[in-house]
Amino acid sequence: MVSFSKLFVLGITAFAVAHPGHEDVGSNIALKRSFFKNARNSLSKCAEKAEFRALQARATARRRDLAYEHSKRSADTAFLKARDLSTVINTSHLSNLTGVTVDSSEDVFFSDDVSCILSPEGEVGPFWVKGEYIRSDVTDDEPGVPVVFDAQFIDIDTCEPIEDLYFDVWNCNSTGVYSGVQDSSNGNGNDASNLDNTALRGIQPTDSDGVAQFTSIFPGHYNGRATHVHVIAHIGATVLSNGTLTGGNIAHIGQLFYDQSLITAVEALSPYSENTVAITLNANDRVLAAETASSESDPVFNYVLLGDTVEDGIFSWIAIGIDTSASYSASYAATLTASGGVAESNSGSGGDTGGNGGSVGGNGGGGAGGGH
């Protein structure tokens, strides 16, 4: 049986993340190329290991079953073969398989040769919130197209899955506003209650196969950025009694994307269509360009529709290879405490301007989750 895994989005210690957008670009490109060469050599040996092949076989079966569990029709899949920004944005990550069922052979689903897709370390963005809850469903009644994020984390040095890594995700809501922060560029900047809003944010531990999943909604858009999902990987963290995380080190920071054709289909639906801010295409997104520059990166989710149309939901997946010894500093906008969200006055810029400001579709009068 041909193994599943199609991509490894690799972290690189050369990228500064405390103040992204201000790094020495020329120096980083040279460091990235050196890192990519070494990482590629390391990962090329992974497929030779019986344990790694067994891991991918389990991933094939697990993702097949999970997609079928969420689907309203038979599951299918998508393949990646992207190597630069132009190829990435012109590659469909949706499969054209037809006539498949849950009883189809595993090599029909999520299959092809293992390839190494390399990515630089990405920007954290300005609206990370520390202290979010460990939970798998982050929807919190937010309206929008249902989506499942499925990620598998691989140690680039050992080719082993990373167990008990904590996968931290967040994205804006359907009309481009982030929960958990109060900022003039993000919805109603006067709405202090948005600091207590936890929608579309959460953390999940990886299992013995290095896998974690979230149920969320497809992100909307805001000024100057293509549709994306923020991710952080925590290593060696401790779970507190209140269901939050503390300690450890940040081994990966990045942003993940979707096909432009899928974004267009989602944005035609309400409430996404209520957002009058101009859409930034993947081809014009500076972060996506940076994550695919001088690399073989494709930081775009594989996906399959869970029904006949996007309204029925989307199952998306990606594999992320990281250096577990890496440790990054990440700026944050707020901290979620026992008494609610508390703004961080000296968080610093995360590289983009955050969510939509002013009047944003039906959401201009409130923070994420309000005014729908």
From TrEMBL:
Leader peptide range in chain numbering: 1-18
InterPro entries linked: Intradiol_dOase_C, Intradiol_dOase_core
The keyword Signal belongs to this UniProt entry's keyword annotation: yes
Domain Intradiol ring-cleavage dioxygenases, residue spans: 135-226
Record field: compositional bias (Low complexity): 183-197
Domain of life: Eukaryota
Record region (Disordered): 182-202, 343-372
GO MF terms, alphabetically ordered: ferric iron binding; oxidoreductase activity, acting on single donors with incorporation of molecular oxygen, incorporation of two atoms of oxygen
CDD domains in UniProt: intradiol_dioxygenase_like
Keywords associated with the record: Signal
Biased composition (Gly residues): 348-372
Protein's name in the database: Intradiol ring-cleavage dioxygenases domain-containing protein
